[in-house]
Amino acid sequence: MPSRGVFTGTGAVCPLGRSAPEFYRRLLAGESGVRPMTEEERRGLQATHVARCDGFTPQPEIPPMKARRFDRGSQFAIVACAQAIAESGYEVAKDPESIGIALGTGSAGAGALTEFLRVLLTESPEAAPPFHFPNTVANAPASQVSIDLKVFGPNVTVTQKDPSALNALLFASLAIGAGRARAMLAGGVDEWNPFYALGFDRVSALRGQKRASGIVQGEGAFAVVLEDEAAARSRGARGLARLAGLAAAGVPTDPYRFAPDPDAMTRAMSGALADAGVSPADIGLVFPSRDGVDDMDAAEADALRRLFGTPPPEIEVKRAIGEMAASGGGQLVAACRAVADSGGPFAGSGRPRRALVNSFGAGGNFLAAVIEAASGEAA
Amino acid sequence: MGNRRRVVVTGLGAVTAIGTTVPEFWRNLTAGVCGIRPLSLFDASSYRTQTAAEVREIPDGELSPAESRRMSRADRMGIAAASEAIAAAGLDLSREDPTRIGVILGGGTSGLLDSEEFFARHLEGKKARPSRVLNHLPDAITDRVAQHWSLQGLKSTITTACSSSANAMGYAFDAIVSGLADVVLTGGSDVLARLTYGGFNSLRSVDPDPCRPFDRERRGLSIGEAAGILVFEEEERARRRGAPVVAEFLGYGVTSDAFHMTAPDPSGAAGGRTVRAALASAGIDAGRVDYVNAHGTATPQNDSAETAALKTGLGERAREIPVSSIKSMIGHCLCASGAIEAVATALTIREKTVPPTIHYENRDPACDLDYVPNEARAADVRVALSNSFAFGGNSTVIVLARA
Fold it and tell me: Inter-chain contact A143–B167, Cβ cutoff 8 Å?
């Protein structure tokens, strides 16, 4: 099976830290970025908890004067992508057309959108602030990254529920496979927004006082640099991890409902394993999609038992960073660092250095990926 | 290239201001009918402009009354266009492997019009229907289409503003070529909303009269709405089942301008890169291109920058071929514009007729190509480009060809 690409850099701005190494270290230490909502955040909601990037500052990656031009989501994305590029050592300026970007998001643009509409609806269309309008688009963060880092290659944003970041990774791997780019920034970005929180609360998606089953919303940005393996080798880049396999499965269902369907979840996982050319015994670690929606979590546990019998050890990411369209990016960054970590969850275990990442969301949207050590020690 | 899987278009569906079926849309498009009229969907009296290319009646035949009540206008238009495209392709989806069929669409404002009403009531402290609050999430339409036809393959929604549905088609192409799917329903559906209507007005980029692409006196765009759905199918299987092949999707180029969030690169360098990426993806020279379906929004900046981009990307060939903007008739359908313009481009190839740019009167020295003014023209178009440029500098060019 031909490689879908090698990961050479990672970046993270999230409730568990402001860099990929910090996020990964605190995740393994069992820390959580979930906290009680402030009174202001809770206004009108039954939800009680949230995971936010408290105290985030865009410096040093973005100078203060420049940072004012970007909304919060774009700041997250620029910082995470700049970190990923720095770790990869990719020289963007040498050939800006050779590198592109694909981010998943469920909320980018929400701040600008709600502010523009607030003025338009409560004052008048003429009073609506024009500078907000261009930032109402979901592709604002990825495009601000492309402008800031001078990335000339493919540039897309994907929105398809919770697994949007893995969906963006799929786009990126296809773009590299088709020769549209030699490297792609991939990942996800989300910003917490009070009106979106209200919406999710009203459709009974959030865990809280009246509801034991549901998600805790997160925010942040995660990025990886995915490169064509031969191109990475020829520039002497050190691969952290390899994208071995990726697959999607859909369930026909209402966009706002969950489809706790273990068959479709198994189809996504088996598809990723088949794409990687490996069997369940070749997987040494699982990053489950588990996010607090009871029937979805039960269906996933069922699907994992069916696939593995006794599933390998797990690292739960959403417990620590919350759920969002970008969360799969967090699992992906953690998986890349785990398979590359000599002292981490694989150390001394004898288990294959290969991880399965599940990202299952509302509307019957399921993706799964297989990430393995780049050094050839996966088997 | 020899063994690469190829992708053909086997079905088209269209819901627009000048026709809610493909035959009606094409008849009016080639007759130069303008669909830009006074806006009726919401009260526009307090906006700077009051016109739009609005769809007055959505053909809901595919839906039960309960279903159509639950869905947004964007969902309903998308389902109608998908239904037409599936029928035209001769596909009996109940007999296909549902895991091999994907849905990849461009996401637009979705049910934002309803959410705006919720939002307005909420801001006034009134009770509002919670079922409407998340209606504007752009991926709803993709899930709805998959749900309606019980499809179980990859679902994706591309959200790159005005190039969303062009990129969705590119993603669909790559998904089929790579073997991830055999059939993909692709394109997009995007509808009028106060946000986008007010947004372009606030940027002073809307013409109070119907827009005049490439005309020296052009003053901005006209907002429109549309659904355009295309059935993409792996060629060998389409041939095997005797499908009515409309055109081949030869390839596409997607690039970042990396220039400015709203302004195009006036030199044409950025757009020229996109055109060249598209030609490279399709494996053809500029000399093979017979027609360009322009982005042609009729803003002063876009049309001159796009003209420069075509000269940069196609060289001398740009001066030899027709270039037209159907936005002069159906307005700028935003996230669905790439899709509905791809439908028009595929029909241009099949029907050997180039649709015109209407409202064209005055030649602009900065726009000096052949824009097919005011009247359709017979032309044996074998290879055509369709351009889509978006906020954020997300630029996409697709390549369609006679199969």
Answer: no
